Amino acid sequence: MSRVEEFEQLRPLLFSIAYRILGSVSEAEDAVQETWLRYEASPVQPTSAKAYLSAVVSRISIDVLRSARVRREEYVGPWFPEPLLADPYQDPERSAELADSLSMAALLLLERLTPLERAVFVLREVFAFGFPEIASAVGRSEAACRQLAVRARRHMDAGRPRFEADRQEREELAERFFDAFREGDVDALQKLLAADVSMVGDSGGKAPQWGRGIFGAGNVTRLLAWIFPALVRIGVTFEPHEVNGRPGAVFRDRDGRILNTWTLDVLDGQIQTIRSVVNPDKLGHMGPVADAWALAREANRARRSTD
């Protein structure tokens, strides 16, 4: 097998490692491309292409994350990972674990870790790499990597909800939620939302957004009941779609351009969090992006004409 063939076979795994370390589709794609350039330029053929390439993409991702953390601290408003509609790395035997590690909630928990802890956690807990391989990837001893793994697991376990819904329950509740949203059924919406539900958006200051979030079932229900008719008036449609391994939706303008994505966190049989990504810089990998400011102006004009 040629280097090109080996690399292309491993590309989905490399992207999946980089995305979980970085939380960014564009940065993960860049890390994978840089990995290929280094592999192509290397005069030595490694014993294991998988181990070698995984190590290279991990080191590149750690370096990128260190510089990205400064930018994220200066980010305007809440920061969410770039939405991913499908993980290219397919492992049917571990699909549930891979989907769990892809969720917005899990990726936001990973933000609490240092770059080294994050890389070690991803390689060990998500992709089941051995400590010798991890040590080579991150440039630390096996003993140090074991300590990093313990610390990372402790931080992640402390932040995880104790009783998260299973896949079938999430999907059934999401279907009821989007049906109620489409129909403007206020009573049904309120019953599906946790009392302390939050609806939070990531615009990065580059798209209209509802402040730092809407909180409480009553407030979120009123916003949801207002949003759908407003969207219909300006030709915006939505399609329920799994986003980051969780129920969600993709919203598009009348020309089919991406407006934003929603993801739903389900806990104890109710929706706990609705996360919206509307920052156009985080949507471009999904296709042409809508002009959210122009749509907001159009929605305001439409509302005034009906008042």
TrEMBL record:
Gene3D superfamilies: 1.10.1740.10, 3.10.450.50, Winged helix-like DNA-binding domain superfamily/Winged helix DNA-binding domain. One of its GO terms (molecular function) is sigma factor activity. Coiled coil: none annotated. InterPro entries: ECF_Sigma-70_Domain, NTF2-like_dom_sf, RNA_pol_sigma-70_dom, RNA_pol_sigma-70_ECF, RNA_pol_sigma70_r2, RNA_pol_sigma70_r4_t2, RNA_pol_sigma_r2, RNA_pol_sigma_r3/r4-like. GO terms for biological process: DNA-templated transcription initiation. Keywords: Sigma factor, Transcription, Transcription regulation. It comes from the Bacteria. Pfam families: Sigma70_r2, Sigma70_r4_2. Residues 7-69 form the RNA polymerase sigma-70 region domain. The keyword Transcription applies. Residues 105-156 form the RNA polymerase sigma factor 70 region 4 type domain. SUPFAM superfamilies: NTF2-like, Sigma2 domain of RNA polymerase sigma factors, Sigma3 and sigma4 domains of RNA polymerase sigma factors. Interacts transiently with the RNA polymerase catalytic core formed by RpoA, RpoB, RpoC and RpoZ (2 alpha, 1 beta, 1 beta' and 1 omega subunit) to form the RNA polymerase holoenzyme that can initiate transcription. Belongs to the sigma-70 factor family. ECF subfamily. This is RNA polymerase subunit sigma-24.
